[in-house]
Design a protein that fits this description.
This protein has helices at residues 29-40, 56-64, 67-70, 77-87, 92-101, and strands at 134-136, 141-149, 159-165, 170-176, 181-187, 190-195, 202-207, 213-220, 226-235. The chain is an alpha+beta fold and 236 residues long.
Length: 236
């Protein structure tokens, strides 16, 4: 990068940095890199006592073109690990041990993955409102979520995920907030509706297939430090 591509950077994905500075957790780029590489590699010298898994490229690839690709959940560590556990029943305990190793304390880290939705995950870093990973909703419900202003719009604090099951009829999803938010709705990773303005009042309407899981992503752009609420409605 930079002038004539003269600058760059590197990172050791086998460093296994679980310090507080690395911000270990399911939402952390560093943590995901370390876990995926440990799932892949063969610790031949046995120096990593927590790593008893060696799935190789074939094991990782099979998961990525299988359950990881077809999941209704958003792309994250959860559907990848859930698929690997389903594909390698004999290694479930070792996979859990490896994943849990990449944490640090009660706030930072990751629990054993039970499904693609991150169910039972208890770690939210410095943001307790980040748990649960997906807020469950039913058509006809209203929920209030909390975002963290002053952060980059791509970070966990400025994003919340909700999920509901389609009923086979039209559904309206809307937000209400004093700060600017955007609204996206996905079905199996494909965007089906979105509303992007400079206000906190967003609304979309679409036909939701019966039995299909839909994911709502509320993305915030609050500029000032501190939490702010967003009301999310899913109505028939």
């Amino acid at each position: 990068m930079g002038l004539q591509q003269k600058d760059g950077f590197w990172e050791d994905v086998d460093d296994n940095d679980t310090s507080m500075a690395a911000k270990p957790g399911w939402y952390s780029e560093t943590t995901i890199e370390n876990i995926v590489f440990d799932l892949y590699d063969d610790d031949k010298n046995g120096s990593e006592t927590f790593d008893k898994v060696s799935l190789g490229l074939g094991g990782i690839h099979a998961a990525m073109v299988g359950g990881f690709k077809t999941t209704s959940a958003m792309t994250s560590l959860f559907p990848l690990v859930a698929t690997l556990k389903a594909n390698h029943a004999d290694a479930v305990g070792d996979i859990d041990s490896l994943v849990v190793h990449h944490g640090n304390g009660s706030s930072f880290g990751i629990d054993p993955v039970v499904d693609e939705w991150g169910t039972n995950e208890t770690h939210g870093g410095d943001d307790p409102n980040a748990i649960p990973v997906y807020v469950g909703m039913k058509i006809g419900e209203s929920k209030t979520i909390t975002l963290v202003g002053g952060l980059d719009w791509a970070l966990l604090g400025q994003n919340r995920f909700l999920r509901f099951t389609g009923s086979g009829s039209s559904v309206s999803v809307s937000t209400s907030s004093i700060d600017d938010v955007d609204l996206y709705v996905y079905r199996r990773g494909t965007e089906v509706a979105s509303s992007v303005t400079t206000s906190g009042q967003e609304s979309v309407q679409f036909s939701a297939t019966a039995g299909d899981e839909y994911v709502i992503n509320v993305q915030g752009f609050g500029e000032f430090s501190g939490s702010y609420d967003v009301i999310v409605d899913v109505l028939p």
